[in-house]
Amino acid sequence: MQDRDEDPREPGGDTRSALIRAAIEAFGRDGYEAATTKAIAGAANANQALISYYFGSKEGLYVAAVEHIADQIGARMGPIGECVESETRRLEAELSMPVEDRRIRYFDLLCQMVDGFAEMLTDQESAAWAQVLVREQQQPGPAFDALYGRVQERVLGQMARLVARLNGESSPSAADRLTVLTIVGQVLVFRTARAAVVRFMGWETIRTQQVTRIKHAVHHNLAAMLGVEHE
Amino acid sequence: MQDRDEDPREPGGDTRSALIRAAIEAFGRDGYEAATTKAIAGAANANQALISYYFGSKEGLYVAAVEHIADQIGARMGPIGECVESETRRLEAELSMPVEDRRIRYFDLLCQMVDGFAEMLTDQESAAWAQVLVREQQQPGPAFDALYGRVQERVLGQMARLVARLNGESSPSAADRLTVLTIVGQVLVFRTARAAVVRFMGWETIRTQQVTRIKHAVHHNLAAMLGVEHE
DNA sequence: GTCTATAGTCGGATAGAC
DNA sequence: GTCTATCCGACTATAGAC
Fold this sequence. Notes:
Oligomer: homodimer
Largest interface: A-B, 52 and 52 residues
Largest sheet of chain A: none
Helix content of chain A: over 70%
Structural class of chain A: mainly alpha
Order of helices and strands of chain A: HHHHHHHHHH
Strand content of chain A: under 5%
């Protein structure tokens, strides 16, 4: 009955990754304590004892799950980040470009990062990731360092550099970093306060249609905050 | 040894409220599942069995805790809310007042609400509350309705009305409500992503000094977003 | 109202056959 | 690598004396 998406009977029978996927789902939905190894093994069509075999313990599985998330996010935000960096260098080099045009390009790049962020936060596929990440923020566990180092530092840092350039500075000040956090917050709230959001907006869920409106609202705010002309 | 802040040996020996206080602490710090009735009873200098006696079950205690938080927040945000409402009515009535002055007053009221919110989120005393609330948002439990009805609906609605008036409308549009959520998000992020925040800013904790800077940054954003002249 | 003691349950980890 | 069976510890809830 309902043979699932994963078939652990593959050659090389990757039970290990099936366990990680199931773990992300479970840890995200129920939290670390409430999630049980039994349920995770069940969802992965694997045996409970294999968790110890592969990861040593429940905590080992959790760490592996968070690292896997960090990799996935890196793969997803990485391209945007690289694009931003190369584009930034190109802009630095083009000395002939007028300041105002340059600002608009920086602004576009910033919007691109925010959009990627918004899509990731609300995307169905990554819903479980987001839940895990939010939990990890509030009670940084043994997996936090890997997460922060691999993803957050890079993304936040890049946004801060863009904001700094928009403000005509060469490197980000404390005020710029604060601004970045308030920008991130404008998107993040739609995940962290999801329950209140859907009630307040009268939405049923947060789908592409809603995400579009969220992006639009945040773009509008950014343009005003940073003093950029915007349609 | 170490007789704590609370002395359950008071006349009327309010073990009940001691349990609620300890429960908020524990549920906030550890989450619902990880918090144990044994630890809660211990922290309250009470007997474990009394939890069943007073609240029926662990879940009963949790609901009581959330309701208590809702009451406390209500008591804290209530005065601001009432002030806002009476002030708003007064402004509606004063037909002679020029539009621009009126906008500035609305803006001030909005800032006041944001400030109250920011203080509450970062305040030491209410740290445990905030943790419980954030958790409850992500996985609305049996206590969510009471919470939303008593607090969030009122606060968000009030902010939305202020934003609507600032935009020259008589009642809040969907866009206004979205704006309100992005405003709330700008403050909320300092709680929900606390771990990343302190690293990114290079802070040790979030104390009054940092809160002041947060408020300042958000005020600046609000002024730009809503098109209000601001120092 | 408050206590002790314990029943009943469940989850994580391990031993050892295959 | 994967399985079954089981141990051990921890937690919630209850029974019942005071």
